[in-house]
């Protein structure tokens, strides 16, 4: 599937027509392809105040083969593909002007599909109200800047507490790469963690076993493909009714198909037994399976409410708890990624059951994060916005087009955009990302 209007608006005839009629022309996003460079050009790295991360950021970029430009204007002839600002030295509102002074001229030179990434200390760790205010102000700056950028460029913010410096490299590479094409205007907080020193850039999940529920079609099938591309053996799970499509996906990725209704009373036990006996355990679990049964709350019967809660929320709770309790099945350094939704953050008319279930997923992830951290594992969520799938293709034309355009990138995302974010959160080097929610929504105008 693809966003038809984006494809049309970037064709010869479509481009001319869009210009004549004053229609938006969404950019063709820079998406990840194995073997491509981290960035298609140099990165400008600067700091506001006496930042503590600049040397680390520069070293990571250079190790990835990225040329680093100085912020002093000595490279005026160069157009950066990324601007990285270390704002860990900001101590009060007055220093925010330094961030403006660095970003404003740099952004005017940013290449198409460029990246802006700001790193700062968390407001919760501030030593004074003024310091907390300045750190929090960076969220407003980044979210607004993301709405101003054009040509498929994005801006995001990463909070890095003291002691979490070793966790920086993985999110830096993700947010600058094509993996994050549809992640825009987002805020992530890192934690201290033991991060592997090295990782296979092309196959970061080599040797891992990854369970993907709802894998027969749409986003689930895309997740299975990306996981397999990154080296994992995929255990593709879906309901028996989807058995034929599930088998096709599993065969395509060289994985294993497991027909399982995850709401069945014995589902958790059957999955645990399969993973123990067939694979010796599991490294990655992706809770992707989900359903919608939309109705206004006043017209919604119990069956619609209960079925959505059972699939979207209760099954995730039951399966995860069973894996945590099963001795040795969830391997050390495991990654659990749960699929929430933009609806769970912003709400959506006619989706009280769906939005409640997806908001519940976020609460579950945050509550479980400490237990996972204690095991050297992580649990996170992704919250997709408008993603172009067979399901959205069946929506009324007007509703579909409005849903696809009301974001900073002016287009719907693709299933692979969700899959890339999940695959990144599944990597061993993403150990410092725990209890977080990453929206894959192109910075939707709905919600935070």
Structure description:
InterPro entries: KR_dom (IPR057326), NAD(P)-bd_dom_sf (IPR036291), Sc_DH/Rdtase_CS (IPR020904), SDR_fam (IPR002347). Pfam families: adh_short_C2. One of its GO terms (molecular function) is oxidoreductase activity, acting on the CH-OH group of donors, NAD or NADP as acceptor. This protein has helices spanning 4-9, 12-21, 54-63, 96-108, 129-148, 169-176, 218-229, 243-253, 267-279, 302-325, 343-346, 352-374, 390-393, 397-405, 415-425, and strands at 43-49, 68-69, 82-89, 115-120, 154-159, 187-189, 209-213, 233-238, 256-259, 282-287, 330-339, 378-384, 437-440. The protein is an alpha/beta fold. The protein has 2 domains: 43-189, Rossmann fold (3-Layer(aba) Sandwich); 209-440, Rossmann fold (3-Layer(aba) Sandwich), CATH 3.40.50.720. Strands 9-8-7-10-11-12-13 form a 7-stranded parallel sheet, with helices on both faces. Strand 5 (154-159), helix 6 (169-176) and strand 6 (187-189) form a beta-alpha-beta unit. The protein is globular and about 65 Å long. The mean pLDDT is 92.
